[in-house]
Amino acid sequence: MKKIMVIGASGTLGQAVVQELRADHEIVEASRGDHRFPVDFSNEESVRALFNKAGQLDGIIVAAGEAHIGPLKEMTAEQFNKGLQNKLLGQVRVYLIGQHHLSAGGSITLTTGIITDEPLRDCANVTAVDSALEGFVRAAATENREIRINAVSPTMLTESADIYAAYCPGFEGVPASRAALAFRRSVDGIQTGRVYRVW
Amino acid sequence: MKKIMVIGASGTLGQAVVQELRADHEIVEASRGDHRFPVDFSNEESVRALFNKAGQLDGIIVAAGEAHIGPLKEMTAEQFNKGLQNKLLGQVRVYLIGQHHLSAGGSITLTTGIITDEPLRDCANVTAVDSALEGFVRAAATENREIRINAVSPTMLTESADIYAAYCPGFEGVPASRAALAFRRSVDGIQTGRVYRVW
Q1: A136, B127: Cβ pair inside 8 Å?
Q2: What is the predicted ipTM?
């Protein structure tokens, strides 16, 4: 049994990850609105407080992050920066602080998406952010070999099709429970520097 | 003859790009210290002023940008954000504002590096930033087909080996003049969404 923190545990994907892992792992469920482990990962002190409260971990999963969606021709640098500050820097911040709270051989698993490889209308910011996260995974796995780092890149979740289907014409959705299996591969497997695509 | 703006024209790469293109194009040389076209691309007003002064362009090249270099285990989110605000958001800002100052079919060419694919010691921030830029190129080329966008990814420049060789063991450098040819491919060719690797 490992002690695994899931940040974004209340979200569609996070709930499925918790469901998948809790059969045989101790799960620390963290999210913005959680009463026990509240966290705003865009805030340095909030992330530090979370890890100090949770104690040593064997794994950290981040299934959270927002970016800007809107037409490229009207986009401003300020809007583009939203995704940099939230989803990108937030997930990286969890790595930078969380690396010091992991047991040897522990893992960190970030969340990107099919949009890295398949740009969608109005989503240039998301493609840039997710590409940066996948680059960070490659670099961090190479430089710090004491812990593992991977990313899970799901396609559209069937549970979210109401919101995203208009952006994803002809995309086959996957249920969040199937995407959750890739997080188990990352947590219980031996690989590092991987992007697990669930497409 | 096209009218091409080169941002970062005073740098090692920028000088070579100007040298390559000025035989048959009109070049607007912009850089932080330029007396005629000064620009700080981390500043919104500075970029707006530059484009307003330069008038309509047929091509924009950005050969500039700084990111954080330092050990991953000691890195802070604030340090990581330096590369996001400078090289990443700076180059994207040039696209977002510059797209409105380009003639139809004009091109924007960004600069990344081999580090996207080959992580180097202490350079996780640079890999993330350059990966984001390459993702942005994929997305922008897909969404806005009225202009072209590409990136040039050089390996270590032989002119910069004094500074970077310690980070790049066994890397074959290329002269800046050879990397400059890839900018000509982008400016005078017909492709879009490409990353021209000069390795």
Answers
A1: yes
A2: 0.97
